[in-house]
Amino acid sequence: xxxxxxxxxxNNLQQVCGLYRAVAAxxxxxxxxxxxxxxxxxxxIADISCNLRSINRNQSDIAxxxxxxxxxxxQKQGQCRITQRNQQIFLATGDFALMDSSYPVDxxxxxxxxxxxxxxxxxxxxxxxxxxxxxxxxLEGKNPKALVLSSYLANIFSDEQEFQFDNEKxxxxxxxxxxxxxxxxxxxxxxxxxxxxxxxxxxxxxxDIYLKPKMxxxxxxxxxxxxQKVFQKSGHTIxxxxxxxxxxxxxxxxxxxxxxxxxxxxxxxxxxxGFADLSYFNRRFKRxxxxxxxxxxxx
Length: 299
Hints:
Blueprint: E1 3-5, H1 6-17, E2 21-23, E3 30-32, E4 35-40, E5 43-50, E6 54-57, H2 59-64, E7 69-77, E8 80-84, E9 87-91, E10 96-100, E11 105-108, E12 114-122, H3 127-131, E13 138-139, H4 144-156, H5 167-181, H6 190-204, H7 213-220, H8 224-233, H9 238-256, H10 266-272, H11 278-289
Antiparallel strand pairs: 1-3, 2-6, 4-5, 5-12, 6-11, 7-10, 7-12, 8-9, 8-11, 10-13
Helix pairs in contact: 4-5, 6-7, 7-8
């Protein structure tokens, strides 16, 4: 794993992507990760990994940075929260986002390791997307359009040692991106978007014993009261949804080890599913499934 000083990592980022600022996570002197840049037939590609708090770009940075691009981000590992153009999206592994360098942006990693590959598309070729203010510039990995886009990228970059990327392939990629992101998703009400993003965060942070309603609200960039109201509309509390996902994770782990000799110890199982209190875990498990974990039978 690469480790660089914050200044060196930021300098590498600016050489490859333009004027973006790196903000270190608290108590982290160095950055775990790297920035690798490639250029093939006019297409710039960046492989970016870090455990930063965030990467930021403000209006002053934009004024000093003459080149304008759309960055097609593919989340390869970890997660990222992006705010741009009064929108907030959450990227899980496998998701895509389209980031416009002509607008201020904040990318939040919250000190957790993340890896993204960025394909730099010229703004002049993507003018339709800039004009379409209704798009949210986010494709979930399970979206059929994301699967097509991912397959195309995997096919043309199957040989990592020798990129063969001609103008025709660039044009196909630009067209695919345009088709994928213009009106790419149903436009859910804001509270439904927040709920979906919250559930994604819960699923990807289920083992974190510190994942509580307040922390979840902070990760989403909303007030705790606002998040509580969103969950109330679903008929559930934030805590009950977090607990349910943790219990489902416990059952899944029990199922995976059912026919092996390496059964989970209940204490380890509880911790792996985000329960710091073993007694509380046993009580909730029994209430949910009618028996304690050691007596649970896999159907």
